Amino acid sequence: TTSYGFPTDSGTKHFEVTAKLIVKTKESEQSGSGSGGSGNAGGSGNTGGSENAGGSGNTGGSDSSQPAKIGEVVQEDGTDYTVTAEDTVSFTAPADTKVTSVTIPATVTVGGKVMKVTEIGSGAFSKCKKLKTVTIGKNVTRIAKNAFKGCKKIKTVKVKSKKLKKVGNGAFKNLAKKACIYLPKSKKSKYKKLFTKKVIGNAKLKWT
């Protein structure tokens, strides 16, 4: 308590002022921040971060949203495709080896991205013993060796692609006895060089 004197017309008046001294120790600062700062530490938005750490939205959907890597085998409707480039895939294996008719699509959607089907892989249909009809999509540029070899029930192969650059040996060997391969007439001069006896065996070529 402190006494102060102030001069007045009637004399000096004294006033007493009581001051309370608050000492803030380091320990109190720490304890205070620990309890008072619960808004920051306890803040689920910052540290509890289930949205960030638990992130089911980020990790659970990776298969469908992240781009596939080159060489990766992906599935679309049960069919296996191998990624060959940023926007192309190779048809690797059908969903069902007991299929009797198959169409190689022009495109498929992988991870939300439309990819062109430009190849048919080696031996892709070698186990399809009941396969009878094949339609090859317009974007196929390469048919690997032995792609359809040994499919002894195949009678009809329709090639829609006008972009073929290579057809591997044995790709259409050992099909049904009267098997026919239908090719675009506009590509006859070029495709005759691709579909040789080493490629088609005893199958007949038809131009449409």
Describe the secondary-structure layout.
Layout lengths: L1 E7 L2 E7 L8 H11 L1 H4 L2 H5 L1 H5 L1 H4 L2 H4 L7 E4 L2 E7 L2 E6 L7 E4 L2 E4 L2 E8 L12 E4 L5 E2 L12 E4 L6 E2 L12 E4 L4 H7 L2 H4 L3 E4 L1
Parallel strand pairs: 5-8, 6-9, 8-10, 9-11, 10-12, 11-13, 13-14
Antiparallel strand pairs: 1-2, 3-4, 4-5, 7-8
Round the mean pLDDT to the nearest integer and report it. Answer: 81
Q: Count of helical segments?
A: 8
Regarding quaternary structure, what we see is single chain
What is Rg?
Answer: 39 Å
Low-confidence stretches: 19-63
State the share of residues found in helices, binned by percent.
10-25%
Number of separate strands: 14
**Broad structural category:** alpha/beta
Percent of residues in β-strands? 25-35%
Taking the sheet with the most strands, its summary is: 7 strands, mixed
Shape: globular
**How far from one another are the termini?**
114 Å
Order of helices and strands: EEHHHHHHEEEEEEEEEEEHHE
Give a summary of the structure in a few sentences.
The protein has helices at 26-36, 38-41, 44-48, 50-54, 56-59, 62-65, 188-194, 197-200; strands spanning 2-8, 11-17, 73-76, 79-85, 88-93, 101-104, 107-110, 113-120, 133-136, 142-143, 156-159, 166-167, 180-183, 204-207. The chain has 208 residues and is an alpha/beta fold.
Architecture overview:
Strand 3 and strand 4 form a beta hairpin. The radius of gyration is 39 Å and the shape is globular. Strands 3, 4, 5, 7, 8, 10 and 12 form a seven-stranded mixed beta sheet that branches. A five-stranded parallel beta sheet has the order 6-9-11-13-14, with no helix packed on it. With 208 residues, the protein is α/β, with parallel strands linked by helices. The N and C termini lie far apart (114 Å).
